[in-house]
Structure to design on (349 residues):
């Protein structure tokens, strides 16, 4: 039987011994009539005041929506902040390593390079499915984090939850499950497992299904002890007031998010049908996200043709297992009309 995961034992010694910075608003909770503790400008309310460093109101609302407690939630400047902080907490520069399951989100590798941490890679199967045994065989004594993205970017498919949980249950390290696109396939979420699994972190975001990429609000859900370490090394006021207010307003109107997701799923189906009719489309991969991965005969030529029409997609041909593939985000009905019209005008070589 696998012994219980020791979070503190996996944390870098300097982080365990760190005395976190304490801001003025960390030392006072509640409401007051006069605030003279943070050297703020007394004029130009409400933006003259620092935001709540603990983001308590938003965490409570998110906890109600996600079935978590505030202690299980870390909020950051996009999910990228949480990814970077996980490196800082768990990975010793120059000696530790992480494992990515490729093709996948490129920031895992970028953060590894920035933090001087070796990135090792295991490929998905050719059908983009996950092989737990291959992943676990690649884990060694230096491995501190395994990154798994589901639904996966750029392959667009949700990975088998049993396969992910097999890795979590047997891995002697942290497993980060990035669910940035999970609102488009909620049945694939592992968020409900967070309270029972100390070595799993689930990442989510308001950027995709909530239509709030511009406010940069990412979420990490994990055991409270792990969340405590992330909170101890984040910048004091890492989520600004405007982002907090916009996120709260969106959560209060969650029916609008449901409507957006519904429309995007309808448009995804319409765009898929149009793509399947085109002779130069060699393969259209099934999607559980808000984008489609399509293999074509001449990805460079098609990309250039669409760019001339003012339509920008993403060429993923250089990514492992994605030779010849373009990634097309599902746009608005009007935007999808434009790309469908352009695709029908394209003359493949």
């Amino acid at each position: 039987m696998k012994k219980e995961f020791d979070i503190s034992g996996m944390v870098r010694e300097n982080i365990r011994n760190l005395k976190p910075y304490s801001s003025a608003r960390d030392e006072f909770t509640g409401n007051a009539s006069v605030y003279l503790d943070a050297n703020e400008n007394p004029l130009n309310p409400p933006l003259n005041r620092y935001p709540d460093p603990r983001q308590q109101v938003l965490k409570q609302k998110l906890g109600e929506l996600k079935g978590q407690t505030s202690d299980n939630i870390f909020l950051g400047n996009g999910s990228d902040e949480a990814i970077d902080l996980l490196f800082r907490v768990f990975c010793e520069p120059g000696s530790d390593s992480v494992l990515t399951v490729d093709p996948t989100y490129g920031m895992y590798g970028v953060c590894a390079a920035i933090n001087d941490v070796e990135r090792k890679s295991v490929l998905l199967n050719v059908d983009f499915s996950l092989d737990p045994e291959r992943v676990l065989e690649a884990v060694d004594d230096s491995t501190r984090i395994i990154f798994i993205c589901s639904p996966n970017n750029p392959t667009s498919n949700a990975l088998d939850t049993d396969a992910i949980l097999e890795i979590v249950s047997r891995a002697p390290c942290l497993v980060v499950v990035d669910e940035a696109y999970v609102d488009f396939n909620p049945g694939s979420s592992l968020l409900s497992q967070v309270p029972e699994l100390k070595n799993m972190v689930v990442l989510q975001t308001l950027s995709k299904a909530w239509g709030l990429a511009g406010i940069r609000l990412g979420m990490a859900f994990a055991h409270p002890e792990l969340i405590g370490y992330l909170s101890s090394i984040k910048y004091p006021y890492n989520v600004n007031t405007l982002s907090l207010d916009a996120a709260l307003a969106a959560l209060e109107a969650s029916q609008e998010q449901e409507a957006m997701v519904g429309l995007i799923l309808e448009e995804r189906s319409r765009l898929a049908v149009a793509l399947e009719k085109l002779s130069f489309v060699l393969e259209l991969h099934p999607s559980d996200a808000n984008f489609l991965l399509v293999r074509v005969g001449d990805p460079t030529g098609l990309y250039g043709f669409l760019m001339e029409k003012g339509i920008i997609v993403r060429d993923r041909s250089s990514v492992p297992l994605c030779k010849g593939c373009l990634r097309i985000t599902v746009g608005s009905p009007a935007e999808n009309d434009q790309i469908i019209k352009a695709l029908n005008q394209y003359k493949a070589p």
